[in-house]
Amino acid sequence: MHEVSIGEAAKLSGVKAPTIRFYEEIGLLPRPARTGANRRLFADDDLRRLAFIRHCRELGFHLDAIRALLKLQDNPKQPCDTADAIAKERLGEVELRLRSLKALRGELKRMIDSCSHGHVSQCRVIEILADHAKCMHPTH
Q: Is the entire prediction scored with pTM above 0.90?
């Protein structure tokens, strides 16, 4: 079995050492083996788990969802209904965020287009930013 230090695990997994310690602390990563000097040693399984967690985080999954996905991964004979439900929930969050970002884009374009490019005292951008009620979209 190949074991590496936390620094090497960070390099190989793309997860920073403090984050690795945090994942260990909250139980997403099992406590690794230790050297006689009490330094952590990470095995290949730990590195694969870190890569899985990192990928989940890149996709925006919350820690509770990652915990549930890891439990599923640890028990591969289960039906994948739970994994599907977690992914569908995340997709819904992404779609909501996209709608919000589109509204935000529209609001920013409208502010810029309505600006007379004169003095700040007549600046539509400043005026709208100072009074949210003047926005076309109440949520963005």
A: no
